[in-house]
Hints:
75% helix
Amino acid sequence: MTALKLIWFVAQIALHAITYPERFPTDASKVAFATSFMRDYAANWFQPYLNRIFN
């Protein structure tokens, strides 16, 4: 993913969280939502952080 794509991805996630605050009452719910879009290398890289958040 290029830096520009990352910036747009983060902006879209933030916009969605702001638009639907009732769906994302906690930071953990925001992280889970953003992570659901991660694949391959990004998903593998983020797995240890998810384990810490949800365990």
